Amino acid sequence: MTLPQRARVEAAPNFLANLDDARRFLRDQDETTAQARFGKLRGDLREMVAVLAWTPAGGRPARFLSARSAQARLRAARIQALAAEAGLPYLREYVIGRYIVLYAHSATEVVLLALKHERQLGYSVT
C-alpha cells in the first residue's frame, strides 16, 4: 500500500504580515500573556499545516464567497483572482480557536493567504 502524496504548504507574504499583526495586537492587548498566547497560536498553526499537507480540502468552504454586498463581492473577486493567478482553484478557511486562516489549494499545493480574528469583518489581503 502506498501513501498519498503530501501537499506542499507555503505561507504567502500577506499571511506572514497578518501573523505579525496578530503578534503585535496580542502584545498591545496584554504584554504579560502575549508570548504564551502567540506561542499557542503558532503551535495550532503548525498542527493545521500538518493536517493540510495530508488533506488540502480539510478546511470549510470560504464563507465570504457567498457575500451579497457589492463591496464584499469585489473583495471576494480580488481574492479569487489571486488564487487563480497562483494556479490554485479552491479557496477554503481553516478555523483555529478564535482565528480563521484563508487558504487556496489544489491537490498538491496549499498557500496560506490571510489570517484574521473572528471579530474582524474581513481579511486583510493586499
Describe the structure.
The chain is α+β, with helices and mostly antiparallel strands and 126 residues long. It has a single domain, classed as 2-Layer Sandwich (YaeB-like fold), CATH 3.30.2310.20. It is 45% helix and 23% strand. A five-stranded mixed beta sheet has the order 1-5-4-3-2. Strand 3 (90-96) and strand 4 (99-105) form a beta hairpin.
Task: Offer a quick outline of the entry.
This is Type II toxin-antitoxin system RelE/ParE family toxin. InterPro entries: RelE/ParE_toxin_dom_sf (IPR035093). 45% of the residues lie in helices and 23% in strands.
Characteristics of this structure?
126 residues; alpha+beta; YaeB-like fold; 5-stranded mixed beta sheet; 3 helices; 5 strands
**CATH H level, superfamily name:** RelE-like
The CATH level-2 architecture is identified as 2-Layer Sandwich
Shape descriptor = globular
Strand order of the largest sheet: 1-5-4-3-2
Give a topology summary.
Layout: E1 8-11, H1 13-29, H2 31-54, E2 60-61, H3 70-85, E3 90-96, E4 99-105, E5 109-117
Parallel strand pairs: 1-5
Antiparallel strand pairs: 2-3, 3-4, 4-5
Helix pairs in contact: 1-2
